[in-house]
Structure formats: structure tokens, C-alpha cells
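Sample 3 of the quickstart, ligand 6-O-phosphono-beta-D-glucopyranose:
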Amino acid sequence: MDVSAGGHRVAVEVVKASNGIDQVVLQNGRGASARVSLHGGQVLSWKTRRGEELLFTSSKAIFKPPVAVRGGIPICFPQFGSHGTLEQHGFARNKIWIIDDNPPLLPPYDSNGKAYVDLLLKPTENDLKFWPHNFEFRLRVSLNEDGHLTLTSRIRNVDGKPFSFSIAFHTYFSISDISEVRIEGLETLHYLDNLLQKECFTDQGNTLTFESEVDRIYVNSPDVVAVFDHENKRTFFIKKQGLPDVVVWNPWDKKAKALVDFGDDEYKQMLCVDGAAIEKPITLRPGEEWTGRLEIFVIPST
Ligand SMILES: O=P(O)(O)OC[C@H]1O[C@@H](O)[C@H](O)[C@@H](O)[C@@H]1O
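Result:
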């Protein structure tokens, strides 16, 4: 489908992937593109107008549901990691989402000039046995004229009683070399260290660099965090609303070897920086809806 948006032609196309699952290809009319799988509502690819891939996908990734693909942006919901009774990172990333042709309106900011698709996840009878809360999770993935990728999520309580959830957009950025990148925006914040039983520490105030495994949840972070990658001459910006926490993860060499769907040396080429709400789970009363936005974009550097 070709759509005119903000004076230029954007394109939204549904294609069947080799695993039989539909993927949605978004093109912003200026050369940038993104690909979203209905499996997990997972963004698999995000490319600049020059065709550079900005997200990492492992060469060993498994494209067979229910396993989430190792790369792109899996969605962790309604649980993050092992912080609860559900399977690791919750079930949303393992489910087949549907395209929502008639979603409730979003502000013009979420549509104007953008190529976008609306996806929807609702629990099945079986899901309700494990997590007995009826919800509607609406996700809009959009690409704007400048190639910014935005994930707008709306979660509604359609149950008769309140429920709480955690959420993370587990973004695998593609980087030149983990030893060369740094993150700015997390200095002096508190973080929970997943490698030390979620103990709370305070960042020492320097930009974050990497020389071993890192698995942290930074709490109450600023709305914008940046990942500098000098060798690739680019900086990623992560701008978020409603997502107070930031997860930073790199498995380093030992854990990389233990992951079946990850190459032994691939930890050098990826860094996960997630917009998330984990430390204080979000509670919704019956009929209430929560909205979160994650916008990611890249600026060339010299
Ligand atoms: O292998 P998974 O389930 O995709 O998780 C990968 C990693 O995801 C990170 O976000 C977690 O903090 C890590 O603890 C975890 O190892």
C-alpha cells in the first residue's frame, strides 16, 4: 500500500517470510526502511537511507516460533527477565500478533508524515491460565521522514480487576566494537545489577564503557540516552516517554558461548539498551490504559 504522508510517498507492505509468518515492511519514501514481524511484534530490521542496518541480528538467530529472534527489538511483557513467575521476559515476544486495521486514534504526532503499522496482542484462553489478566496491547511501529523509528505502545486493562506489569523494548543496536562504544546519560544513576542478585549500586559518574559482561537496570533515567560509536561514526539516541528505566546488556564472551542462538564473537557487534519500566511495575485499574513511547534515531558523527 502506498500512502501519501506529509507530501511524500511512504509505503507499507505485508510480505510472507520464509518461516510462513507475515512481516510488515515500512518505507519512509526517502530510502529508510524497517521490517516488523508479527511473531512477537518484533522489529527485525531498521535501515538508513543508505541501506546501513542499525539493529543487530545474530547469524545464529532462530526464526521459528515460539522462540524470539536473537536481535532486533523483542518486547518483554508482562515480565522482565526472571523478575516474576512467568517465563523469562514474559510471553509477548513469543506470540503471533495481528495487524490492527482499526486502532483507536492516536495524536497526529504519531501518524503525520510517517509510515506505520498497528499491531495487537490479546491473551488466549491458555495465556490467561498463566497470567489471569485480560489486556489489549496495541503497538504502533512507525518510521518518520528522517528515518526515526518509534514504538508507541498502549496497554489497556479490559479485565474486572487491577493488574501490574513490567515492560522493556529490548533493543539490540548494531555497533562496530563493544570496546569502543560508550553510553552517556546514565551517569550518577542508581542501577540494579542482574549479575549480583539485583543489588542496587550507584554509577560512578563516568560515561559507561565496556570491558566485561554488563547486565543492569538503571532506574529513573533521563528521557534521552545516547550510545556513541566512533568507529562507525554514528551516535544512537534513545528518547523515551513513560519508560523510566534503561536496561544495558552485553553478554561478553563466556555467556555468548552459552547462548545457542548467538555466535561466540558476536558480543563485540551488539549492545542492548532498552527503554523499560521494571523497577516500579505499572498498575492499571479496570478500563485504564498506559501509553509508552520509544523513539530511536541515529546522527552521524565525525
Ligand atoms: O536470552 P534472553 O532471554 O533473550 O535474555 C537476554 C538477556 O536480556 C537482558 O535484558 C537481561 O537483562 C539478561 O539477564 C538476559 O540474559
